[in-house]
Automatic annotation (TrEMBL):
Coiled coil location: none
Position of the signal peptide: 1-25
Record protein name field: Ig-like domain-containing protein
Entries under Gene3D superfamilies matching the protein: 2.60.40.1080
Length: 92
């Protein structure tokens, strides 16, 4: 059985770098890995899940749900590399 070759990431960036929206709104974050053909899967984490939660929606994408007014940093991690997006949540 042949296994696909793994291509390790050497860097990560995240878009959008900042976003703002009301409670109840969501935003999709997209990680860009270097090299473009990297086969690594991005791990996601919220600095404050009471304000915004994050759930992976694919190898390099995630959906952020805004739960309460405030700011949370969403971190995307691959290997030893990280990128952060600041998510501001406003009252409805």
């Amino acid at each position: 059985m042949t296994r696909a070759a793994t291509v390790p990431a050497t860097a990560i960036s995240l878009l959008p770098a900042t976003s703002s929206g009301a409670v109840g709104a969501s935003v999709t974050l997209t990680a860009t890995l270097t090299p473009a053909g990297s086969t690594d899967v991005v791990e996601w984490e919220s600095s404050d899940p009471s304000i915004a939660t994050v759930a992976s929606t694919g190898q390099k994408t995630a959906s952020v749900s805004r739960l309460a007014a405030g700011t949370a940093n969403i971190t995307a991690k691959v290997r030893t590399f990280t990128a952060t997006s600041a998510v501001t949540v406003t009252a409805p």
